[in-house]
Amino acid sequence: IQAKNSFGCNAALWSSQSTVSGLDSIKWLQAVGVNMGLVNSNGHSMLHKSAQRGKEDVCRWILANFTCHVKTSLYHASRNESEPTSGDDQRSSEHFVDMNKLISPDAESCCPSDLAGMEGFEELAKWLVCQERVLALQVVTSNVCPAWLEYGLGESRHLSNRSGLDGLYEKGAGIKKMCAGLIESGIVQPP
Q: Which of 15, 74, 110, 184 has the fewest beta carbons under 10 Å from its own?
């Protein structure tokens, strides 16, 4: 049940993009201990896969069920620790879902919102943009900024607002939208 293909995809990644199986199979996989936080060799998480296939119900389930893990993940990252493996936190590191990895760009600089938008799922893409911005804000306010977001902020110094970014779904657009949102919030100053 923990098998992976040559791209590093497991059953959770396969099910999150499937047109045949639905949330019931994903919930079952979680219950039997399949790693729900796996990111494959292309940088795709369950959220990337479900967004690319327009699986709105799966995207909503992923974010509703795993956003609570953000603060714990950021706490351990800020202390240069691995995710919790036992004790007070009931999740094992193998099954821990790092929200940063769920929203981070893939190997081609596409965030989940970019993948949904490029495949024509515009309403899902718009919703994902909002979710990515909220999670990016949580990341930055926790004093932990992943390298991809830090780089994006450096490249986004000219983004004082999102004008021109709405409806843009391409490589790097999701990062620009998250950075524009952080700058708009006033929490992050343009470099």
A: 184
